[in-house]
Amino acid sequence: MSTAATDDEAMPRSGEREVVISLRGVRTVFGDRVIHNGIDLDVCRGEVLALVGGSGSGKSTLLREMIMLNEPDGGSVKLFGTELVGISEAGANHLRRRLGVLFQQGALFSGLTVLQNVGFPLREHTDLDDAMIDALARLKIAQAGLQPEAATLYPSELSGGMIKRAALARAMALDPEILFLDEPTSGLDPTSAGQFDQLLLKLKDMLGLTVLMVTHDLDSLWDVADRVAVLGDGKLQGIGSMRELSESTQPHIREYFEGPRARNVQERKWETA
Q: Residue 17: what pLDDT?
């Protein structure tokens, strides 16, 4: 692998906004199946951008390429102006400290308490002593909306909503600039999902986060996302606000506004009219 720069290069801009994630011509192939065939996408600092699309459209795969777990077969993926394709391990580790990731099932370590799970990235990536790590972990646990006593619990003792919050606290442990969320409200009841959405907005405003999330949750898309990017047939089929996309006649986009969920769309249009 070639060595890529780890300091920010000249950052591209979209209008007046700084672009922190930039994809150009991304191509991904699994066997004889083309998953992505020329994806171009920019994510601007401070926005919440959601990726949606049908099953197999490559949403989570694209996210994994952005967080350096997979490498595309072609094209360019840049974070903070640094090319990820061919990046060295040292360069990747430098960038990973600026990212937070919440995986779909939480991915908490079952043998560690919540406090130990949240403190894990700090032990891996800093030279802080145990007392400081525990103090910072307790702060992140509080920021994620968990009660102090949750720190001593193991994942098997947590509800679904608590697991999501504990995983969010761990994702924020290193004070990331970008937060990646893979189906953050999946498995949650509507009340818990709504509470998670409100927490995410609060943290985004309080900490100045940029958020990229993969979700099927229409309510989350309306309530949280500034822009939504729709994947289908290996391409980016459309991008815009939910209001803009709800008025699209493009077939891949219309799939999200047909059937029983169309009522949700009409209600939201009425609310924002």
A: 82
